[in-house]
Model the fold of this input.
Amino acid sequence: MRLRGNSKLLLCNDRYSDSIDLCKKYELFPTLDDWRGRILLLESSEEKPSPEMYEKMLLALKKYGVFDVVSGVLVGKPMDETYADEYKNLLVKTIASPELPVLFIINIGHAAPRCIIPFGTYATVDADKQLIIFD
Done:
C-alpha cells in the first residue's frame, strides 16, 4: 500500500470560508479512488486543535468516505501530547471500524521526538508487531 499524507485538512471552512468550494473547483483533494488501498497519515499541528475541531476534521474525512477505502491509518503523536486521550477516543468513535488498523501516537510530524515518513512510497504496517516497513 502507498502512503498518502494530508497536512491541513482541506474539507473544513474554519480558516477560510471558501476552502471547500476551492478544493472542489480545482480538484485539490484526492478522489476516493486515489485513496483506495492507501495508508492515511494524520497529524495534528502546533496549533493543538481542540477535540471539537479534531472531531470535525475526522467527520469530514468520514463523510467523504476516506475511512471506507483506505487500508490503514497512522496517527502522529499530538504536540506535547495535548488532547491525546481525547483524540484517540474520537478516532475510535468516528472511524467505528474494528477491521481498519489504526496506529496512534507515532513519533512523526510536529511532536518531538520525530522520525521521517516518506510519502508516496510503498509500506507494510504490522500493527501487532508495531512495525512500519518501507519498500
Observations:
- Residues 1-9 have pLDDT under 50 and may be disordered.
